[in-house]
Amino acid sequence: MKIDQHTDPMAYQPNMEIITSDIMEQVLAARSAYDAAAYTAASVQQALTKDHLTPDDFAALLSPAAEAFLEQMAHRALQDTRKHFGNTVNLFTPLYLANYCENYCVYCGFNCHNNIKRAQLNAVEIEREMQAIAAQGLEEILLLTGESPAMSSVQYLAEACKLARKYFRVVGLEVYPMDSSDYAYLHQCGADFVTVFQETYNTEKYGQLHLGGRKRSFPYRFNAQERALQGGMRGVGLAALLGLDDFRRDAWSTGLHAYLLQRRYPQAEIAFSCPRLRPIINNDKINPKDVHERQLLQIICAYRIFLPFAAITISSRESSRFRDHVVGLAATKISAGVEVGIGGHSQQPQGDEQFLIDDGRTVQQICAMLTERDLQPVMSDYVYV
């Protein structure tokens, strides 16, 4: 893959679906106007008194001024979580099907110039992995690949979805963005929801970090969730990779993006992930910059208070201590028994991982932790009739 720095990252590439939507323009305009330093203690206190927050209230909760109110934010987040989710916490695990990638993202372990062991599971291997995962009692799976339509085609993903539907009640996808017709086809084959990380909403930084491949197109990636909903997906997940740029602006943009999608598609299930930048193969100097656990907790609580119905996933990138602290408080979804290599549930991983994880506990260990904290592990909260 050649470096394509002269291609406009704000332009669509050939054969990319363009939908009619103004959500990206609204988010980028709001991001440009967001001044975290403008919010005061009074702004934060006022936001915490409201039953329903405005986007400006959400911005206040992400500001430096809100750090002094983290305990109050956590208390409010806990109230909202209990009100809408009770004491339940959903479990899932990711299954990495392939790590071939056609993008050149400078921070990613899968990028096409990185010297890693590449692999792809075939149908027999996929089913074997799914059988091993299902045997642990899990009923939700997240299917992931590197972003390579050539190596992990829509048809390949469709067959994986069909296999997953045999073993799991809920099937999620975290793959490359695609057109609404492709999302519709994958939904017919068993996929329930789609997660796409925008990585950063800073368009200039986005162009500096994504030097080649289809991922270089910022607008095509931004509109992926809306195309997925237009294709019939039940839900979508959003995230910025915290630490690539100003984390407050990126969290603000992610929350507003979700808010606007929820208003346009009220039937959609909206979810947040809260990943921090992690070390990757061949680049062990990458760190989460200034996004420490205190700031991450602030973001998670702000998401919960702003959109109380949204699911929030706490990643295995984080330590077991931190995950134990936020699950049930604001996070309502937790991964367990995670393998980030290609395969690894029923055999030795065939390909290298995308990033390092910090919590490798089994499903049984996660369930025990939740039970000890008076939380109820839930394997699936959705029934098809």
Structure, described:
The chain is of the alpha/beta class and 385 residues long. The protein has one domain: Aldolase class I (TIM Barrel, Alpha-Beta Barrel), CATH 3.20.20.70. It is 38% helix and 14% strand. It has 14 helices and eleven strands. The strands form two sheets. The protein has an eight-stranded parallel beta barrel with strand order 1-3-4-5-7-8-9-10, surrounded by five helices. It has a two-stranded antiparallel ribbon with strand order 2-6. Strand 3 (140-145), helix 6 and strand 4 form a beta-alpha-beta unit. Helix 3 (55-61) packs antiparallel against helix 12. It is globular and about 60 Å long. It starts with 22 loop residues before the first helix and ends in a 7-residue tail after the last strand.
CATH class: Alpha Beta
Q: What is the average of the pLDDT values?
A: 92
What's the alpha carbon Rg, rounded to whole Å?
Answer: 20 Å
Judging by the overall fold, what is the CATH architecture? Answer: Alpha-Beta Barrel
Number of helices: 14
Number of strands: 11
Q: How are the strands of the biggest sheet laid out side by side? A: 1-3-4-5-7-8-9-10
What is the domain tally? 1
Order of helices and strands: HHHHEEHEHEHEHEHHEHEHEHEHE
Distance, first to last CA:
46 Å
Q: Main sheet, how many strands, which sense, barrel?
A: 8 strands, parallel, barrel
The CATH topology annotation reads as TIM Barrel
Query: What fraction of the residues are assigned to beta strands by DSSP?
Result: 5-15%
**CATH H-tier superfamily:** Aldolase class I
**Outline, from the CA principal axes?**
globular
Derived structural class: alpha/beta
- Low-pLDDT segments: none
Report the helical percentage: 25-40%
